[in-house]
Amino acid sequence: MKAPVAALALRLGHDFNDPALLEQALTHRSAADPKRNQLDSNERLEFLGDRVLALLMAEWLSERFPQEREGELGKRLAVLVAAETLAKVGDVIGLSAALRIPPAEGRTGLRQRANVLADATEALIGALYLDGGLEKARAFVRREWIGHMEADATPPMSAKSRLQEWSLGRGMGLPEYVTKSAEGPSHAPVFTVSVRACGKTAEASGESKRGAEQLAAEALLKELGRG
């Protein structure tokens, strides 16, 4: 086992009964075997990990904030499972160095991309769940997300939610998002999105459509003096 992978396995706090699951969780689609139609990449584990994370976070939030209503818990959940938070967790646990990515793609900075780290973090949660059950996945999530869980005394709100609240509160309707372009290879796209609200427009680019929308909303909030 290579040093970065061994260090990551130690950080996960789980000795895999099936090491192939960990290997698959660390395999970006660019390193997958095309003969297997991407089934050996981490995409299926990412799909599973996304659902496991949402369940574990909903459980934890219900315990941690027993007096909050569903809407407030939903705001917290949205931030805790957002790609930005997942990427931060992935960075802290040393995920970038452990990813299986072709050398040519590694030189382009692919392993440092936030969306790649976020997807792989979800895949790791999926692998932990399959190999060790919900308890192992829960232990990892609660250990690595505790700082994010305790970061806000009041329910946080994303830029898109704040912009929507601001616009609706002034009778201006919902913000309108338009995808202007999607460029680059399928495993490393760049999306450019514009948003219009309250008579003003802003534009931003990101590694995912959702991320670009958030950045555009942030830019427009600053334009409106609400950043």
Task: Name a few traits of the molecule.
single chain; 227 residues; mainly alpha; 3-stranded antiparallel β-sheet; globular
Overall description:
With 227 residues, the protein is mainly α. The chain is built from 10 helices and 3 strands; from the N terminus they run αααααααααβββα. Strands 1-2-3 form a 3-stranded antiparallel β-sheet, covered by helices on one side. A hairpin with a 2-residue loop joins strand 2 (190-197) and strand 3. Helix 2 packs across helix 8 (114-149), helix 3 (43-64) crosses helix 4 and helix 9 (159-169) crosses helix 10 (209-223).
Topology as H/E string? HHHHHHHHHEEEH
Helix content bin: 55-70%
Measured on Cα atoms, how large is the radius of gyration? 19 Å
Mean pLDDT: 90
Main sheet overview: 3 strands, antiparallel
Looking across the biggest beta sheet, what order are the strands in?
1-2-3
Number of DSSP strand runs? 3
**Helical segment tally?**
10
The coarse overall form would be globular
**Beta-strand residue percentage:** 5-15%
Concise summary:
This protein is mainly alpha-helical and 227 residues long. It is built from ten helices and three strands, in the order αααααααααβββα.
Helix and strand arrangement:
Elements: H1 3-12, H2 19-25, H3 43-64, H4 70-80, H5 83-92, H6 95-98, H7 103-106, H8 114-149, H9 159-169, E1 176-183, E2 190-197, E3 200-206, H10 209-223
Antiparallel strand pairs: 1-2, 2-3
Helix pairs in contact: 2-8, 3-4, 3-8, 5-8, 9-10
